[in-house]
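Key idea: predict the complex, not the pieces.
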Amino acid sequence: MRKSLAVRIANFVIGWSAAIVFFFPIFWMALTAFKTEPAAIATPPKLLFSPTMINMRAVLDSADYLHFFQNSLIISCAATLLAIILGTPAAYAMAFFPGGRTKDVLVWMLSTKMMPAVGVLVPIYLIFRDAGLLDTHVGLIAIYTLMNLPIVVWLIYTFFKDIPKDLIEAARMDGARPLSQFFFLLLPLTAPGFASTGLLSVIFIWNEAFWSINLTVTNATPLTAFIASFSSPQGLFWAKLSAASLLAIAPIMLLGWLTQKQLVRGLTFGAVK
Amino acid sequence: MAKDTQSKARGPAVRTGPLMAPAVSLLVLWMIVPLAMTIYFSTLRYSLLQPDAVSFVGISNYIFFFQDPALWTSIVNTLSLVGGVLVASIAIGTLLAVVFYETFPGASIARLLVVAPFFVMPTVAALIWKNLLMHPVNGLFAFFARSLGLPPVDWFSSLPLTSIGIIVTWQWAPFATLILLTAIQSLDREQLEAARMDGARGLTLFYHITLPHLARAIGVVAMIEAIFLLSIFAEILVTTNGGPGSATTTLPYLIYKTALLDFNVGMASTGGIMAVVLANIVGFFLIRTISRNLDS
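Result:
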């Protein structure tokens, strides 16, 4: 398609300006992570400086940081895995054996996402306190599993739906039982779908900051809540904050970039593909 | 259970009940138990500081709450924040979707850079902006202002809600871009070309072809964002703590404060019910759009 040169230049300029504006805070943070503390707060700001690994080493050497990183990793992976294990049978049933109320069930599952977390903060907090679940991995894993279950069911459902009916029919004609159909036909076909569902769920949990802040103290604290502790005035070490932040967001940003396409589907419950 | 003889049968060849049961029953519990408890607590005078002095007070928490100016301030704050961020992020997202629909040198890299902020966890986003950029003395914005000979802005003191709005828009405009870009890509190039043949140009083309095509996606983006934005919490906690005064106390923050700082279970639950009602008004429209989509 031919476009006038002016329009193409405008696209280039706007597109790249937006890229620079949006990415700048992340870039600046990454830069600050390699400055010394005095250089981090220097005015005028230093664009050229001799990079130091002192903050990175300080962050990585402290047992605390690794502990919080590990918490994020354990909690997001465990909750994702659980949600997939619980959600797949339901998605399978609804995709291949839809009944009269399947649609209602799907929509109802989605509607559980409408519940604002603050609406149930009090009872959840009290239940957790009485059950000794405050500040435990198990507690957060349970919350996040339930939070992500509807999305996981929806996504896997839409991936199952995309499988051509003929293929299933052919397998059935060949005498494949449901269980072997599932493991030898559906699972291989939807493996990329499962992968992106899992990644999306991990991204959501990794970045969740309401429950993690309110339900943990130190033991099960994930990175979101740990970074929040930098907000106290005496904890204001910008270079260290930047280093800790950079390490906390880098893995998720890479995952997010890799799964952009599926992300759109997951984020809109399949309403935009 | 299923036998191959059933291959022609229309009905279920597998009993779906046991497959559905775990997910459905857990979600039912997750949905009903805490909500029922919140409703129950909202009718009690119940403070964690005096756990023995619990008494049933009916709807008087609600009456008290409705007369409390703090509630209305927080609702106004919540709606301004949600409204402002919605408008800003969708305007930016639409513009960028149109721009990135075309290719230009480095477009794919520029697109990755634009969507990046969406993957930054809320606490990191808020603290980076608050310190590195918006700090009135050592922040980068203050430096820019001074180099231009202007007095630096003390963002979180003089424009607290706007500052939080800027941070949240930075996180959510990439989301709008991502979704709208996907939606615009299903735009029929031939239709565009035909319109162009007919002499449609620039804004006319945008208003009559692109925007109607994007309308539903924009609706979906608005509602999904609204649901998340109605629960904005961490950004406020780490930047302003709801202040100065109550300038940035939104409904979620007010509930958090009432519950976990004032230990007032009854009032916090009443606030929780308000938040649920607010979210459900938005959610109703989202559900309707998405379930309509399920039919097609």
